[in-house]
Amino acid sequence: QGQFVESGGGLVQSGGSLRLSCVASGWTFDEPTVGNMGWYRQVPGKERELVSSLSRGGNEYYAESVQGRFTISRDKAKNTMYLQMNSLKPEDTAVYYCRRDFGSWGQGTQVIVSS
Q1: Mean pLDDT for each 10-residue chunk of the chain (115 residues)?
Q2: Residue 107: its pLDDT value, please?
Q3: Rounded to whole angstroms, what are the CA distances from 76 to 47, 72, 95, 106?
Q4: CA-to-CA distance for 86 and 84, rounded, in angstroms?
Q5: Exposed, middle or buried by CB within 10 Å (0-12, 13-18, 19+), for 77?
Q6: What is the pLDDT of residue 1?
Q7: β partners of residue 40
Q8: What is the largest CA-CA distance in the chain?
């Protein structure tokens, strides 16, 4: 329940850009129970980490490692959230997921940044 479907990952060279998208599946952004939503990432052997989030009111949060390089946004009319990733580094390589508060995890989208 409350799941997103992620897309937009791929292979990119260091310094390049990607835009990830995730579409709400079976629910809409304007439902009163929808609170914070965010992008997470995970590499094998490590815990999933929060990369960036948006509160219901639009307040943005960025992990220090992506501050100034990534931008989170959403289109409420399309029930879609985005993550614009610029100046990508090899350490950004991970599977990226979207999740809303109390939502379930989707399948994620793989990002690989080559050096």
Answers
A1: 93 98 94 94 96 96 98 97 98 97 94 97
A2: 94
A3: 30, 13, 24, 19
A4: 7
A5: exposed
A6: 78
A7: 50, 97
A8: 44
